[in-house]
Amino acid sequence: MRGIGKTIVPRVRHSLQKRGLLGTVWRCMLGPYYLLRTYQRIQKNYRRPRVQDQFDLDHGVETSMRVHMTDLEIESPNWIYAGGYWPTPPALITDALSGLDIRFENFVFLDFGSGKGRVLLLASEFPFQKIVGIEFSLELHAIAQENISRYKSGTQKCRDITSVCGDFTQFPLPTKPLFLFLYNPASEQVMHTVAENIYQSLIEQPREIWVLYVTPTYDIFDSGKPLRLRKVKSTDQYSLLTNSPAA
Fold first, then answer.
1. Is CATH 3.40.50.1460 what the domain over 90-242 is classified as, yes or no?
2. Is the dihedral of CA 74, 76, 77, 80 positive or negative?
3. Please, where are the H alpha helices in 30-114?
4. 81 — alpha (psi -120 to 50), left (phi > 0) or beta?
5. pTM as predicted
6. What is the pLDDT of residues 35-87, one digit of tens each?
7. Where exactly are the structural domains of the chain?
8. Parallel, antiparallel, or unpaired: how do β-strands 108-112 and 209-214 relate?
């Protein structure tokens, strides 16, 4: 019963704030319909592939199988705002990072919502000073740790890779130059919290920062912020932003 309370109470509170009492009651009455529709969408979007993709086969890891949030046990109340695990295409990371004229060894790479650790492994092909993933699912975190230990690559340039199990809205950002990765990991509300944390960190410790924002659904780095990040590259898959004047 305690577990049920943890999942239902935050949803009801959020609905009351957003829709009011009558809207929440009406939403509850339509609950079975929404539940069936959501389940059908999940079955379609998260249907697991029968075989691992080439990246996994080449490197002896398992990062390609999709996972929905309903398949995981997560203690953080922010789970209701999160998306499921969806593997990042290796070509996206290569395209975004290969042409950058930066000293990778000066940067700490952070992945917000790192899942099974695929992006951490892809980033390790570049000479970052350190690579850290923050994942609030203990199950996905455990898989990421296993993948990090099993990863096989003759071209790997960074071996200081860590998966941290925790809520990335509460993760203290390192004071060194940062390269941040966001694969649209949560709702707009949580993403704005992440953006505020980044800006506050920059106010406290000015430094160079880059953000690779995949499927940028929310405009969380808008011009109203005290330290605006400029968009230096944009494709149909991602946006690359920075505060570097040399970019």
1. no
2. negative
3. 31-45, 54-59, 90-98
4. alpha
5. 0.76
6. 455 545 544 544 555 557 899 999 999 999 887 665 566 565 555 555 667 89
7. 1-45, 90-242
8. unpaired
